[in-house]
Specification:
6 strands; alpha+beta; YCII; 3 helices; Dimeric_a/b-barrel
Length: 122
């Protein structure tokens, strides 16, 4: 089994009305519920951009805190799901389920195992 991250950038949602987004919410929740019922969902969440702040390390070992994003950019993470499945094919099937439910693209990537799980040479 391997962990995969399924995620989307808020920009990919496009210019949708609040009513359209509300209509999709139960469909997206049903997809996540289906993942939970299948025993593959590790965690799923949308992100609230209103509370975003940054933490930046300095060369002297201190950190700087800032309100908002570290650097302005057009894309920001809108939500993600971590799943534990056999292989990429299974991860792609679940990502397709989420994409259909949400109505916008999803990306999938395999999470790198923790160092102690990575084996020799990690």
């Amino acid at each position: 089994m391997a962990h995969y991250l399924i995620y989307f950038n808020r920009e990919w949602v496009g210019e949708r009305s609040e009513a359209w987004i509300r209509e999709r919410a139960p469909l997206a929740q049903a997809a996540v519920d289906e993942m939970r019922a299948a025993g593959v969902c590790v965690y799923a969440a949308g992100l609230d951009d209103a509370g975003t702040f940054s933490v930046s390390p300095a060369d002297d070992g201190t950190v700087a805190f800032g309100d908002g994003r570290h650097a302005p950019h057009a894309q920001w993470l809108g939500g993600f799901t971590v799943i534990d499945v056999e292989d990429l094919a299974a991860a792609r099937r679940w990502a397709a389920r989420l994409a259909r439910a949400c109505g916008w693209p999803q990306e999938v990537c395999r999470l790198v195992p923790e160092l102690e799980d990575a084996g020799p040479g990690a």
